[in-house]
Amino acid sequence: AYPPNLNISEYPIGFAIDKILRDDEGIFWITEPSLADGSTVGFTKFNPATNQTETFPIPDGQSFSVSPFGEVIFSRGRIWGVDCVAGSIKAFVTTTGQIETFPFDEVCNDGVSTLAAQADGLIYSAVYGRAALNVVKADGSTAVLSPPAGYSGFLNLSSNSQGQVTAIVFNEDGTTLGLAILNHNGEFEVYHSYQPGGEDEV
Length: 202
Known about the structure:
- This protein is an all-beta fold.
- 0% of the residues lie in helices and 44% in strands.
- The protein has strands at 19-22, 28-33, 40-47, 52-57, 72-75, 78-83, 88-93, 99-103, 113-117, 123-127, 133-136, 142-145, 153-159, 165-170, 177-182, 188-194.
């Protein structure tokens, strides 16, 4: 049973929902998947204060495809996702409805990637189990970061409400994991290491 003070509201959308996220103004954005191949055919903007929706189809000649294991995040007025098929990080610009594309040599491993946004607007994407961490800078330029010294690759990536980016990294034989934080120089520093299943596992 639900708690007595809990109010639940339902809002019919009219299509299958793939992913949903909330922007900085409390507006919800919903990705609508293609029933044929799972790619995103459009975005629906939902304002819970007015119950109004607005639909933004993907422009002709452009694409925005996120794997079932991928994620989407909101930053700098854009919805970001990793397109494994196109080999790029993509951004849907919510003010124009256009797609921005940032290609990289490697963006996914078996359809898995993670995304995080830093407070200064940089977008980070870790290729699961690989040594590549892709970066899209605020000016649109790109870069690729390597794991911290003594580690071979990235497993996960996240950012907190203050925009501090952290990562889980692993060593070459997988016996040691590390918790790493992005420092002011744009490099990851390991602040805690542990062995999976050990007493110091967190």
